[in-house]
Amino acid sequence: MSDAKLVFVYNADSGLFNTVTDIAHKILSPKTYECQLCSITHGIFSVRENWVNFLEELDAECEFLHKDEFIKAYPGIDTTYPAIFKIEANQPDLWIDDKHINQLSSVDDLKKAINEKLANN
Hints:
By secondary structure, this protein is α+β, with helices and mostly antiparallel strands. 45% of the residues lie in helices and 20% in strands. It has a 4-stranded mixed beta sheet with strand order 2-1-3-4.
């Protein structure tokens, strides 16, 4: 994928308090959890193994950011989260938006969406 990288942005903020709150939300009310990207790629306490395996085989550099980290790194981007961006020459391009991600329900669905985008670029 040349010098581009993929940046996965979670619809969650960084920090210990937010992490603990997210874990509690996943346990107590998983249907109302606001980050489908998190739900797909992570179990309650760790990253899903089949997601890790996919990333290891993916021919692309990947970065994972919480939305507050992304906003700090790339100010001025107006979007809703979760989202996946393709970054080239430090310019973010919205690659897979929240509407698409929120329709996915599994790691396999997400892998398919990413592979389709890679095949068309």
